[in-house]
Amino acid sequence: MTDLRADDLRTLARQQIPAEVWDFIEGGSGDELTVAANTAAFAAARLRPRVMVDVSAVDTGVTLLDARLDTPVGLAPTAYHQLVHPDGEVATAAGAAKENALFVVAMFASRTLEDIAAPAAGPLWLQLYWLRDRDAIARLARRAAAAGFAALVLAVDAPRLGRRLRDIRNRFAVDGRVRAVNLDASLMAASHDRQAGASALAAHAAQTFDASLTWADLAWLRERSPLPVVLKGILTAEDAAAAVAHGAAAVIVSNHGGRQLDGAVATLDALPEVVEAVDGACPVLVDGGVRSGRDALIALALGADAVLLGRPTLWALATGGSDGVADLLRHVTDDLAHDMALAGRPSLRDVDRRLIRAVTNAR
């Protein structure tokens, strides 16, 4: 599996994953314009390599929230890993630990926080949605801190679930044998209830997500946990500045993999204005459309401190378990190091906007 690229993993995974689960993983909202835009933005970028630079040693190491990582490539939060592998997030965490890479665990993980943390040598962050049941959020935050998680990641782009037409057409509901075990069963019942002409996940979100979330609410979460709070779903300079003003420890430029507002700006296109607005006050991460070391290099050159893989994580987990996840991270990191050398940038400190040719608005 070591020589397989993300697209190869995707082909293999599609052969193994049931059709409606595949649509749940791969699908976006609406016409999936933003899903396509995320990858197209990377494909359109062009690099300006420098020559006659000593690249005999290339360093991909990075520090995020005081944790030293061997790679700026991490794993984005994706739900229900047991839908594609029986060991679920435990295997994913083990794979990330082998490469000393960041793993952001989803609120709707199918293994307990404590089991996920057990094999992890690298840092774990826990992603949260803002629920009407605030006690449930507080309980998860306490458990995450006790289990050794290093940060909370609040998804701020989901006051309601995007209209994911594949799930609606499939009447998608989570297999009853796979559950979001870190939340009370009563909170998750609707996600397993198959309904005519509807997505069970959308019905669940309508019942449980709190659409009244505002910037003022962040103080409530910060008061209830010693962990730093990262905001995921930032796409504009205005929101980036507000995140810094309200004490965000980091921001993640994300459009939810094209699964929320269809037609939203591609994350790579949003990245420069977010980086400019943050102005070094906190780390900036990005997800959405990252498939290779070249993609990672482009995002890092535009100011990201790290990139996160979403769908490729599930492809790798489905086809190779924990070793598959480790192989994916290793391959993308090796690819990044290779391209850094060819670009004349031996360390991440040398990777900046001068590497990217100015992109016109023709795309």
UniProtKB/TrEMBL annotation:
Required cofactor names: FMN
Pfam family, one: FMN_dh
Domain FMN hydroxy acid dehydrogenase residue range list: 1-361
Keywords: Flavoprotein, FMN, Oxidoreductase
InterPro entries cross-referenced by the UniProt entry: Aldolase_TIM, Alpha-hydoxy_acid_DH_FMN, FMN-dep_DH, FMN_HAD, FMN_hydac_DH_AS
Entry similarity comment: Belongs to the FMN-dependent alpha-hydroxy acid dehydrogenase family.
Protein name stated in the entry: Alpha-hydroxy acid oxidase
UniProt organism field: Luedemannella flava
